[in-house]
């Protein structure tokens, strides 16, 4: 069983879409483990990766400005 995302909005969007990490990874062109690492907080996404995840999962609201939602330069 895959770990749950660190972000509650991400977890809810993932559940609502019914997507696996593998499906998300395929749609954003990244390895599945990298997507898992981003979603669980083990890796920090670039702004482009963050935006791609939001797009695939249908998240349209801006993320909160806290440690769980930090991005790094591309």
What does this structure look like?
With 74 residues, the chain is mainly alpha-helical. The protein has a domain at 8-57: Orthogonal Bundle (434 Repressor (Amino-terminal Domain)), CATH 1.10.260. It is 51% helix and 0% strand. The protein contains four helices and no strands. Helix 2 packs across helix 3 (32-40).
Descriptive labels:
HTH cro/C1-type domain-containing protein; mainly alpha; 74 residues; 434 Repressor (Amino-terminal Domain); DNA binding; 4 helices
Could you please say which CATH topology of the domain at 8-57 applies here? 434 Repressor (Amino-terminal Domain)
**Mean of the pLDDT scores?**
83
CATH class of the domain at 8-57: Mainly Alpha
Helix content: 40-55%
Structural class: mainly alpha
Order of helices and strands: HHHH
| CATH level-two architecture of the domain at 8-57 | Orthogonal Bundle
Give the beta-strand count. Answer: 0
Beta-strand portion reads under 5%
Q: How far from one another are the termini?
A: 30 Å
Write the layout of secondary structure elements.
Blueprint: H1 8-17, H2 21-28, H3 32-40, H4 47-57
Helix pairs in contact: 2-3
Q: What's the short version?
A:
By secondary structure, the protein is mainly α.
């Amino acid at each position: 069983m895959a770990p749950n995302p660190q972000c509650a909005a991400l977890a809810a969007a993932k559940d609502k879409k019914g997507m696996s990490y593998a499906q998300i990874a395929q749609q954003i062109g990244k390895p599945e483990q990298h997507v898992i690492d981003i979603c669980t907080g083990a890796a920090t996404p670039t702004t482009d990766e963050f935006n791609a995840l939001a797009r695939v999962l249908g998240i349209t609201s801006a993320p909160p400005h806290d440690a769980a939602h930090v991005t790094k330069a591309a």
